[in-house]
Amino acid sequence: MMQIKNLHAKIGEKEILKGVNLALEKGKVHVLMGTNGSGKSTLTKAIVGHYDVSVTAGTIEYKGKNLVDMPAEERALEGVFLSFQNPIEIPGVNNAYFLRAALNAKEKYRGEKETNAAEFLKLMRAHAQKLGMNPDMISRGLNDGFSGGEKKRNEILQMEILQPDMILLDEIDSGLDIDALKAVSQGINRMKDGERTFLVITHYKRILDYIHPDYVHIFQDGQVIKNGGPELVDVLESEGYQAIVKD
Amino acid sequence: MKAVNLDLVHTEHPLYAKLQSMGMPANKTEQYRNFAIKPLLAQKYHFYNPEKSVPKEGEKLVITNGSVSEFPAGVQVRYESDFVCDNAHYDVLYFYSHAVSVQTIYVEVTRESRFELEHICNQAETFLPYRIVISTAKNIHVEIFETFRFDASEQSFVLYGLDAFVNTDTTLRWIRNASINQAQAKLVGTHRFDVAREGALELNTFDFGDANALHLYKIDLAEHAWSRAAHLLYANTQARSGNIIAINHNEVYAKSAQEARYILVDEAVGIFDSKIRVDAGAQHSHAVQNSKAILLSPHAHMYAKPQLEIYIDELEASHGATIGELDADALFYLNSRGIEAEEARKILVLAFAQSLIDSIGSSHYVEKINQAFEAAYYKKEQ
């Protein structure tokens, strides 16, 4: 689904990604773990085309195209979705209006009929209910005054409505209570269809117990230093990152 | 044809001396420093003498070329040659407009009312000065929706103003919805609002378009009076537009809150110059002032001058001003969901404006203001 080859990137003058090589397989759940500041979030930003990140070398091949050359909105329209670690609050932009604009943009890009307002509200309400969201969040400002857990649920709501193909989840589990973690995990599991690919960044094992990853990659100092299966998580839990770095 | 100058004023009124001492505004006159008033005054105009026609009763208060042509039920209208003038006003054109207006329109609102005040100017190359005095009865709610229809008014200069008296326990909600274009008349409004004990003024102004237009206000608050002012301005091309406000807390427990949001495009210049003065006798005042401006083009300019002048200790007061571009993280968030850059900008600009439009609450004028804003914004975008 996605091949990242020798990716180098910097923020400002500081090089953060130092030759990332990572193959993300179609229909699989990949987990990326690493110490704080190792560059995991920068990798997701590079994939989605964040303005802060300058790619200086390497490629991100996806559906036969190099994403590095594409503007952010086109990457999204091609099916790449990032759930942000800290979703921004945008007061005044109605949550439903925003999400319908995003859905209509995708439908237009694909030459499909645009979902009208009534159909969309029905769709949004149904998804919000599954996620256990308060119905009034639909009509509130985008993430405006939402708690940390509500913001994460709202990210999953967007994911479920936009139905992307390549899903990046940057610490989707941080700051979630048990119920919210279950709701978010169930949302992720609903999206698993054997076709979509997930790259989940996390520091903790608990979300992995719900979403059952296929591959685990360890990130250190701007590079992937180890690839393996779910058993790597147990090694990390018992021995920490140093054991893997030494290995 | 003549230019606008002091030679035109022939009055025995004692305020003429004050007018002479102040002189006509020039490039360095503080209130007009960024508005370029001098070319506007130097231009030659026909001087229009308003007709005293007999107005008909209708739904709106309509002022056509300085004369009342229609008035709504519950409102009494008359003309007077003498005028109520606030000797302490800071703006010379306030006095000038009083002195050169042939007649003053007196509007008395005696009961709960909600009506539209429509200004019509259909004279080209004309100087049109007129003044309106609005007085309200005690303990009523009055909502006035002010609009402008300047057809065939190119190269004209409309100098008008309000002297509004908000009576005890009365609320005056003033909503200005002005969409004026460069090809139409230039507009200067110079106003005074006097809010009596426990009276309330809600001043909501919405100015859109590429015209040169400036409004100057002096607001006086008595004991337990309050005012809430919200100013939304969208200006494009080479417009110079803005609000200059002096809010005076003259007595105890007065409250004022003011919020301005400006959106400036192309080479437009926005002006927000506001001073809240809390007098020595106005203990327990509460004053809040905030202005935010978004510059959507590198050559757009914003002049923001929020000021507090305080002569007591017992009060709560704050002020602030920010000027910037659209938030890059917000733009990226929308882009990351597939919304293209231009559409994302529109969504954020509309959101910035929306909070002030929505702040006028359930008024049925919200839809009209939304339409006016979107017309101005999308016209620019097309």
Top keywords for this entry?
A: four-stranded antiparallel sheet; B: 382 residues; eleven-stranded mixed sheet; 21 strands
How would you describe what is shown here?
The complex is a heterodimer of chains A (247) and B (382). Chain A is α/β, with parallel strands linked by helices and 247 residues long. Chain A contains 9 helices and 12 strands. Chain A has helices at residues 40-48, 72-77, 95-109, 117-130, 148-162, 178-191, 206-211, 231-239, 241-246; strands spanning 2-11, 14-24, 29-34, 53-62, 65-66, 80-83, 90-94, 141-142, 166-170, 197-201, 215-220, 223-228. In chain A, the strands form 3 sheets. A 6-stranded mixed β-sheet of chain A has the order 6-9-10-3-11-12, sandwiched between helices. In chain A, helix 4 crosses helix 5 (148-162) and helix 5 (148-162) packs parallel to helix 6. Chain A is globular, with a radius of gyration of 18 Å. Chain A starts with a strand and ends with a helix. The model of chain A has no long low-confidence stretch (mean pLDDT 93). In chain B, the strands form 2 sheets. An 11-stranded mixed β-sheet of chain B has the order 2-4-3-7-9-11-13-15-17-19-21, with helices on one face. In chain B, strands 1, 5, 6, 8, 10, 12, 14, 16, 18 and 20 form a 10-stranded mixed β-sheet that branches. Chain B has one domain (6-326). With 382 residues, chain B is of the alpha/beta class. The longest helix of chain B has 18 residues, at 341-358. The radius of gyration of chain B is 20 Å and the shape is globular. Chain B has helices spanning 15-22, 37-42, 92-100, 328-335, 341-358, 366-381; strands at 46-47, 56-58, 61-64, 67-72, 75-80, 104-109, 113-121, 126-136, 141-150, 157-166, 171-179, 186-195, 200-209, 213-221, 226-235, 240-249, 255-264, 269-278, 285-295, 301-310, 315-324. Helix content of chain B is 17%, strand content 46%.
